[in-house]
Amino acid sequence: MMEVVKRDDETIKEHLCKLTFYYGTIDPWCPKEYYEDIKKDFPEGDIRLCEKNIPHAFITHFNQEMADMIADSLKDDLSKM
């Protein structure tokens, strides 16, 4: 299995306007400092910190909450067109 050892900032910068980063507050795979670091490095990006205590494996128990959140975000984006 390949291991990610460094964030690909060039690719993020190139596609930042198309990306949304969603970080959990209770995620042992991705500590809150990762959110803080990327928010500092890309302050203009759509970088969010979960306020609902949704776990990393959200698809097993929180799929509807995540789907609703994404749908709301898309509705906001589409209304600006």
TrEMBL record:
Q: Which reaction does it catalyse?
A: a cholesterol ester + H2O = cholesterol + a fatty acid + H(+)
Write down a Pfam family by its short name. Answer: LIDHydrolase
The record's keywords, sorted A to Z, are: Hydrolase, Lipid droplet
Q: What is this protein called?
A: Lipid droplet-associated hydrolase
Please indicate which superkingdom the organism of origin belongs to.
Answer: Eukaryota
Tell me which Gene Ontology terms the entry assigns under biological process: lipid storage
Indicate the family of this protein. Answer: Belongs to the AB hydrolase superfamily. LDAH family.
State the organism named in the record. Homo sapiens (Human)
- Cellular-component GO terms for this entry: lipid droplet
E.C. number: 3.1.1.13
Enzyme class at the top of the EC tree: hydrolase
Q: What is the lineage of its organism?
A: Eukaryota, Metazoa, Chordata, Craniata, Vertebrata
